[in-house]
Specification:
single chain; NCK associated protein 1 like; Nck-associated_protein-1; two-stranded antiparallel ribbon; two-stranded antiparallel sheet; elongated
């Protein structure tokens, strides 16, 4: 393809498509792709040539439209000349077109000729506009009163108190108007383009007309670059010097160009910096006055649009020079001011309706001075008077919509009729008429074309083509504390980008939309990150203050009070005493700002930017800034909560649930204060974050508090409890660490008492505890699997023991053949420990739920109590509902579901039932082995055994209930058999007087009583029928006699 492009560029436009086919072979092979890919470019070039033909043959009527048309035409030609590959694109298209259709495109010769003619664009343009020199010069010289007045240094603006409503208090309510209303907010950049490009095209007047020369030099001193279109700029000094260098008699003009360029390089940056500095102060004053007195928006609207236009001019100058003058120092508050101020203008602007009535009266009085008025002009002016005089205040009160476009179009026609040569009614002879109509046109726009006026004076879509400059400006503003309140202006400017497209080029809309949304989202995320950082830093400070008030920190204060009471010596002077909570609020000098003061000030500034607008539209996308803040806070708060947990998997350290809950409450309390600054739903934010913490993973796939505490309780607390390093204490309703020689990383009672488990229930809620329960059940099922394997290994012996339990001699022989009894009891104890922990958690969940959802909790409780129990599946469903609220159930639905999931198709229900019954036999005949363990001693203080065998009672009852529920068998009957077998084997302990088994015999007897007490299916009558009560009474007396109870 490269050889074809080189050939086309060399022979363009006279390309032999048939004689040199070897050079165009690649295009021949891919002619359809070439045709489709170059069609859009070719049609764009055709648009340029059509525009060129039409502009030359058009009759120009008005100065502004005339100059705009000239500048647009010149910009198109210059931009076209900068396209390096235009000849290759057009040549390839025509080549593919001829190869496809057998003939060249009809427009190709004209297009090729235009490319050749404009190979040196400025030379050709000056030739074309030579005949128009007089008209162009006359149009440009009409700016000699307007442009110098606008192009003043900031000192003169300041001395004239420009844009100040307070400079003349007596005239504050008077309508701001002048003879040149539209010129007051005309863009400086537009006028400079007119002057520079206009005098380049018609340069002969620069040597003959002093006024032209002065106006031209003033334009050259304004800057170095002018915008052609979007990010295409024109180096005005270089282009002017290159053009005049080839023309005789322009040596003085070249010297003027060099002088003006040096002036810009030396003074341009400082002059525009001072202008921006003045505009910042003037805009602040104008904003404050209009905020205090919004009624002034009506009479002083001209000041508003002047302020917007002046600010926009400085922004545009800054943007087009920022990348081309790298050493330029600038501030960006002007872009913030201009964009922010725009959003405040459109509030009460429709109060201008009453001016239209006054203009109707003025028009009627002016018409009386006209002696000659042709028919067409008379019809138009009569229409003006009738339209304006027909307006009334009632129309405004009735909220009627006004449309004055027809009136403004008629005024355009009247200017056309009265501006031609030898017009019967020349407009220049009636300046008062022009003034009044221009004033009328301005005020009618205030009623029905406010958006158009705002677009004209404050549109900043140029930033769409300078993204790097835009991002740099945002970064500088975000680093300046006083500018944080205006940061929302940057994403708001992105809503202007939709206006930078062109209907003739729809293919670029998608790319512009992506660029606009990317910039908008980037800015909003950065603002949200800054705001969330400040908010969460304040929350962290408050959390530290709240942490100082926790009970665990009061030991030093109590110790100091005790020293004072007992008159013991206080600590030495060298020791630094810890400050009491609240000391940070004591200040000797209020002017000294601490860290919290700075954070609150920064938060106020950042939140102020969110008050500029609730939402805005970027390319049909509705953007809500506060949603970005909520999203950031949600992500950051989730990370902070997880980080506050301080879980260390290596050392098995974790924050106590009550401490974490206190920290979260401190964060939530301070987050709610955010709603005092901006309208944001903090409750929804907190609910979303805390609800995610009740799940195994959050919305980003990260670990949650639920996962961390589940892992810790399973891997640390319950694992040590299964090894008897931690003991379950029914009396204290907690787990306690055993006293050992080894150093322990935590004390179990500090993490498992009622207050801690209630805090855990509040933290992770019912969903989190369900996840914890599922993990607990997984560990239980793994133990049950091993138990079943052991039952299968000893099945023959267990069957014989079940049938011969009333034959002591046979039982003695069978026990010798039975293996793994200690292992069975160990695994059952582990199951009991897990179930005891779950029961404690469920109890705390019940307390939490009864406080949070009292009515719903009572309804679930009543449903559970009055369950008719007709169908076991219905009963299990009710139990599952009750268990979710922490209510205790006779049959644990989670355990039932876990054991049911273990069943496979390989085993029949009868075999499962047989294994379950034999497992109870296995446990019952193994109970006497517990007496051999010295840790089987019953601890009255703890209310249980030191090796956690008291947890067997819960394990036996709940495991039996779950297994026989699945098998649809009578639970009570099966437990009766177990009780009978267990009583028989335990009674044999009393016959062994000299053996080691009698040492903890009484403690093991109590275990039988615990099984009956724990079971909802067994009663004391059943126990007494098979185990003498006197043995239980003596056992209790024996285990309690070692404790001395003292009173007083």
């Amino acid at each position: 393809m490269e050889s074809a492009i080189k050939y086309i560029n060399k022979k363009f436009p006279n390309i032999d498509y048939r004689g040199n086919i070897q050079n165009l072979t690649s295009i021949q092979r891919q002619k359809s792709e070439v045709l489709s890919n170059t069609t859009s470019y070719y049609e764009s070039f055709l648009d340029v040539i059509e525009f060129r033909v039409n502009i030359i043959t058009t009759n120009f009527d008005f100065t502004k439209n005339y100059l705009d048309l000239i500048i647009t035409y010149t910009s198109v030609i210059i931009t076209l000349s900068r396209i390096d590959d235009k000849k290759a694109l057009v040549g390839m298209f025509n080549c593919a077109h001829e190869m496809t259709n057998g003939s060249s495109d009809p427009s190709y010769p004209r297009l090729g000729q235009m490319f050749l003619e404009y190979d040196h664009p400025w030379k050709k343009l000056t030739e074309e506009f030579g005949p128009h020199t007089k008209a162009v010069t006359t149009a440009l010289l009409s700016l000699k009163m307007v442009y110098p007045r606008r192009n003043l240094p900031a000192e003169q603006w300041r001395s004239a108190q420009l844009l100040s409503l307070l400079s003349a208090p007596a005239a504050m309510l008077d309508s701001a108007c002048c003879d040149t209303m539209a010129c007051e907010y005309l863009s400086m950049e537009t006028m400079e383009r007119w002057i520079i490009i206009g005098f380049l095209l018609c340069h002969s007047s620069l040597n003959s007309n002093q006024a032209s020369q002065e106006l031209w030099k003033m334009g050259l001193r304004s800057g170095i670059y002018l915008t052609l279109t979007r990010d295409e700029v024109l180096n005005i000094h270089k282009v002017s010097e290159d053009l005049f260098d080839n023309i005789k008699g322009y040596s003085k003009r070249i010297a003027d160009i060099k002088e003006c360029r040096e002036h810009v390089l030396v003074n341009g940056g400082a002059m525009h910096r001072e202008r921006r500095h003045f505009l910042r102060g003037a805009l602040k004053e104008l904003c404050k006055v209009l905020e205090d007195e919004p009624g002034l928006l009506g009479p002083k609207a001209l000041f508003v649009f002047m302020a917007l236009s002046f600010s926009r001019d400085e922004i545009l100058w800054l943007v087009r020079h920022s990348e081309n003058m790298p050493k330029l120092k600038y501030h960006i508050s002007d872009v913030i001011m201009a964009s922010t101020f725009k959003s405040q203008v459109s509030v009460s602007i429709h109060s201008f309706h009453y001016f239209a009535v006054l203009h109707g009266e003025i028009k009627r009085s002016n018409e009386k001075n006209m002696y000659v008025c042709p028919e067409e002009e008379s019809v138009l002016m009569t229409s003006f008077v009738s339209t304006l005089s027909g307006l009334s205040v009632k129309q405004v009160d009735n909220k009627e919509e006004f449309d004055f476009r027809a009136l403004r179009l008629d005024w355009l026609r009247l200017q056309a009729y009265t501006s031609v040569n030898k017009a019967p009614l020349p407009l220049k002879d009636y300046p008062d008429l022009a003034k009044v109509m221009n004033l009328t046109q301005f005020h009618t726009k205030m009623v029905d074309a406010v958006e158009e006026m705002l677009y004209e004076t404050s549109e900043l879509s140029i930033f769409c083509f300078y993204p790097r400059v835009f991002e740099k400006m945002f970064t500088q503003s975000s680093e300046e504390a006083t500018m944080k309140r205006y940061l929302m202006a940057f994403p708001l400017v992105c809503s202007h980008f939709s206006q930078s497209g062109d209907p003739l080029c729809p293919e670029e809309v998608k790319s512009m939309e992506k660029r606009s949304l990317r910039l908008c989202v980037t800015f909003l995320e950065q603002i949200a990150k800054q705001t969330s950082t400040v908010v969460l830093e304040i929350c962290a400070e408050q959390r530290n203050l709240c942490d100082q008030l926790l009970p665990k920190h009061c030991a030093e204060t109590i110790s100091a009070a005790r020293y004072r009471k007992q008159k013991k010596p206080m600590p030495k002077k060298g020791e630094v005493q810890k400050e009491k909570p609240g000391a940070e609020s004591l200040r000797k000098d209020r002017t000294v700002a601490n860290n919290m003061d700075k954070l609150h000030l920064m938060l106020t500034e950042l939140c102020s930017c969110y008050s500029l607008c609730g939402d805005f539209v970027v390319f049909d996308h509705i953007v809500v800034p506060t949603e970005f803040l909520i999203s950031q806070l949600e992500t950051r708060l989730s990370e902070i909560i997880v980080r506050m947990t301080n879980y260390n998997q290596t050392t098995q350290e974790i924050t106590r649930p009550s401490d974490l809950l206190a920290g979260i409450r401190a964060y939530v309390a301070n987050l709610h204060s955010l709603s005092c600054y901006i309208n944001v739903d903090v409750t929804r934010l907190v609910k979303s974050v805390l609800l995610q913490q009740t799940q195994p993973l959050d919305s980003h796939g990260g670990q949650t508090v639920t996962t961390l505490y589940t892992n810790w309780f399973l891997e640390s607390l319950l694992r040590q409890a299964s090894n008897s390093l931690i003991v379950h204490c029914p009396t204290l309703h907690c787990f306690m660490s055993q006293v050992t020689d080894a150093e322990q990383s935590f004390r179990a009672e500090e993490f498992s008492d009622i207050s801690e488990l209630q805090a855990l229930a509040e933290l992770i809620g019912a969903y989190g505890l369900k996840f914890l329960s599922e993990n607990l059940m997984w560990h239980i099922t793994s133990q049950v699997t091993e138990l079943k394997k052991m039952v299968i290994e000893n099945m023959d012996v267990l069957v014989q023991m079940k049938n011969n339990f009333d034959k002591p001699e046979e039982m003695v022989n069978l026990k010798k053949r039975l293996t793994g009894g200690e292992n069975v009891l160990k695994r059952m104890t582990i199951i009991g420990v897990i179930l005891s922990f779950r029961a404690m958690v469920q109890e705390c969940l019940k307390d939490v739920m009864s406080n949070r959802i009292m009515i719903t909790y009572l309804m679930m409780k009543l449903i559970k109590i009055y369950n008719p129990e007709a169908d076991i599946q219905v009963t299990l469903s009710i139990y599952e509902l009750a268990s979710a609220a922490g209510l205790p159930c006779d049959i644990d639905p989670s355990l039932v579901a876990a054991i049911r999931s273990m069943q496979t198709d390989n085993t029949s229900p009868d075999e499962e039932h047989k294994l379950s019954r034999l497992l109870l036999v296995y446990i019952a005949v193994s109970l006497p082995l517990l007496a051999l363990d010295p840790n089987s001693f019953y601890n009255r203080e703890h209310g249980g055994h030191n090796n956690n065998i008291h947890c067997l009672a819960r394990a036996i009852n709940q495991l039996a209930a779950a297994m026989f529920t699945i098998q649809n068998k009578n639970i009570e009957q099966q437990l009766k058999e177990f009780l009978l077998l267990a009583s028989s084997t335990l009674l044999q302990l009393g016959q062994n007087v000299e053996r080691m088994e009698i040492k903890n015999r009484e403690s093991i007897y109590l275990l039988l009583h615990m099984i009956v007490e724990e079971s909802p299916f067994l009663s004391q009558d059943m126990l007494e029928s098979c185990f003498p009560y006197v043995l239980l009474r003596n056992a209790y007396r024996e285990v309690y006699k070692s404790f001395i109870v003292t009173l007083g």
